[in-house]
Amino acid sequence: MRVQPPSGQILGHPKGLFLLFSLEMWERFSYYGMRALLVLTLVAATGSADPGFGLTNAEALRLYSYFTAVVWFTPIIGGWIADRFLGQRRAVFLGALVMACGQFIAGSSIPGNLPLFEIGLTVLVLGNGLFKANISTMVGMLYRPGDARRDSAFTIFYMGINLGGLIGPLICSTFGENPSFGWRYGYYAAGIGLTLSAVLQSLFAKSFLGDLGLRPSEHAATQGGGAGKAPLTHEEMQRIQVIFMLFVFCVLFWAAFEQQGGLLNLFAANKTDRMISGWEMPAGWLQSAESLFIILLGPVFATVWTRLAGRGRNPSSPVKMALGLVFSACGFATMLGASLETAANGKVSMAWLLIAYLFQTMAELCISPVGLSMTTKLAPARFASAIMGIWFLTNFGGNFVAGQVGALADQMGEAAIFAGFTVTLCLFGGILWLLSPRLVRWMHGAEEVNA
Fold first, then answer.
1. What CATH number corresponds to the domain at position 112?
2. β-pairing, 348-349 with 279-280?
3. Nearest to residue 139, comparing CAs of 92, 96, 78?
């Protein structure tokens, strides 16, 4: 039997959506605040006014890629644990507490204690595995199959992600890049954000979510008459194949997108004029730009998807993703122009990065929340969190590739990296658009809207 959330709506959506919005917001505050500091902390000289670990750019980008890749691998394990043993709610709560410990450990290691810093990152990875896939699954559980609000719900939820992504770098970089405080206080601020996420869940989950997510999905499917141990049907297999076929396209997108925390972060720090009336803006603040654009454009995209769905003209998920790849290519074409400008005239205006982030925002809105929503539609209910964890492996592959490609910039030059992404993203966008009719057939009506 399907567990129903408590009655009551906010802005036409179940009120539980906005609690999950808040939990994710504080978790992403922590993650993006830390991400804005990570590479800069690693390359900061041990003898500087704000000492870090003194790694080279290439060493820092590789460590960044390993961490951000594994962060997206563990949700498949955390999703399986939730489906079999904990339930989504307990997994999310425990994950927030574990990640808070990881941030505090990482902060305590600065300056110079790289092994302890790596332990902190490892603890963060483990907590993320419990948190990430399960909270996204719970958003999908708020809606019945065929509910036209689902895509817009994930776009609203995605605004919570990016509200945290907006605030996190502003606060954490303000502390971390200020020698009067030091890098460690940026990580401590990130840990406080995760603590707030856990506190909010403990206070409001019962009234906003009822029993939603308390029982492991596999047990709930069996007790409700579902075939918890039954083999997958042909239809279910084809739906899962769609997820795997889209996998490679999303890996490419995340490999491009995650240059923001690595190569583009270094570009902002070293090649961008950040002076405003005699004051130099922290480089990490530019990491908030894309999140600000998400918050501004998210309602627009949510409204467009809902209205198109109501008219029967909503593009399929593969078509939306193909459009996102093209938008991402436009962002890297902008960065190619910025790189050529630096070669000619030295540091460039922040406007170049802001325009690139605007294109990346439109790309992200066409791919990430759409992919989350699509996965909850296609995944068999008894494997919901585990399949969501598999979907997050696109981020795992993309983040790993991102760091490895970014590290090549010292040998190949930034312009070559930006040009390569521009061409490759356009090419794969075209291929996905051509494949989209077949992928829609394999979805077997999962994206059809009920009147």
1. 1.20.1250.20
2. unpaired
3. 92
CA 294 – CA 160 distance, rounded (Å): 10
How far, in Å, CA of 361 to CA of 258, rounded? 12
| Cα-based torsion angle of the residue sequence 417, 423, 429, 435 in order, rounded to the nearest 10 degrees | -120
DSSP E strands, 281-357: 348-349
Q: Is the peptide bond before 111 cis (omega within 30 degrees of 0)?
A: yes
Instruction: Tell me if 396 is assigned to some domain.
Output: yes
325 within 8 A of 425, measured Cβ to Cβ: yes
Specify whether the CB–CB gap between 158 and 369 falls below 8 A: yes
Q: 83: domain range?
A: 14-225+232-274+284-442
Q: Is 2 a member of any domain?
A: no
Distance CA 292, CA 112 (A): 33
Q: How far apart are CA 340 and CA 352, in angstroms?
A: 11
The number of domains in the chain is 1
Give the pTM. 0.75
**pLDDT tens-digit profile, the chain (451 residues):** 456 667 778 778 889 999 999 999 999 999 989 988 999 999 999 989 999 999 998 899 889 888 988 888 888 888 889 888 888 999 999 999 999 999 999 999 999 999 999 999 999 999 998 998 789 888 888 888 777 777 778 878 878 888 898 899 999 999 999 999 999 999 999 999 999 999 999 999 998 988 888 888 655 555 555 555 667 788 888 888 888 888 889 999 999 998 987 889 889 988 999 999 888 898 888 988 888 898 888 888 878 877 887 787 888 889 999 999 999 999 999 999 999 998 888 889 999 999 999 999 999 999 988 887 888 788 887 777 778 777 878 888 888 888 788 888 878 888 999 999 999 999 999 999 999 999 999 988 777 765 4
Show the tokens assigned to 13: 């959506």
Structure token digits, residue 18: 């906005």
Q: Give a yes or no: residue 251 inside a domain.
A: yes
| 173 domain-assigned | yes
Distances, alpha carbon 188 to alpha carbons 44, 99, 120, 213, 376, in Å: 18, 12, 12, 30, 34
Coarse DSSP helix, strand, coil percentages of the chain, rounded to the nearest 5 percent: 75, 5, 20
Taking Cα atoms as reference points, which of 431, 405, 352, 390 lies closest to residue 129? 390
Do residues 381 and 226 lie in contact, with contact meaning Cβ atoms separated by under 8 Å? yes
Per-residue DSSP letter, 143: S
